[in-house]
Amino acid sequence: NDTATTEIYTLSLHDALPLYLSAVMEEVYAYIIRNMQDVYKEFFSILSEKENAPLLFHCSAGKDRTGIAAALLLSALGVDRETVTEDYMLSAEHITKKYEFITREHPELKPLTTVRKEYLETAFRVIDEEFGGIERYLIDNLEVDLDKLRELYTE
To answer: Catalytic residue at 59?
Structure first.
């Protein structure tokens, strides 16, 4: 029966969509690390100027580009990766209501509207495997002066 086959296929696709979207988001994070270095270089350049502190930064969704920016900044300031990840995951709690109008009707789209530990882990994996670790990435690719940044933002 064609109808039964179609219903099973639709159900399978519906169930598979969140897994697929999570994988897509992991690739988005890898892409950001590899291809948006100029943006983050400018971000750190602005942060490194004393007259710019304190500084508020955000993006339209407030979770991906901003989440990576915050993770890179905290890492540059010497915060351990576990704490950086815990900070990043706070976004999942704080943005739920923002996207409720989407996820209420389409819960399968939730991977696009939240943060997941795996997303940030993907970014860090790319940094570690392709750029020699967070410190090398910050110094060599984003031209961050770690000492200056730490002097400005840590006690």
So the answer is: yes
Taking the model in full, what pTM does it have?
0.87
Q: Tens digit of pLDDT for each residue in 25-82? A: 999 999 999 999 999 999 999 999 999 988 888 877 778 999 999 999 999 999 999 9
> Which listed residue (59, 78, 101, 143) is catalytic?
59
Q: Say what the pLDDT of residue 67 is.
A: 94
The phi and psi torsions of 115 (rounded to 5 degrees) equal -110, 150
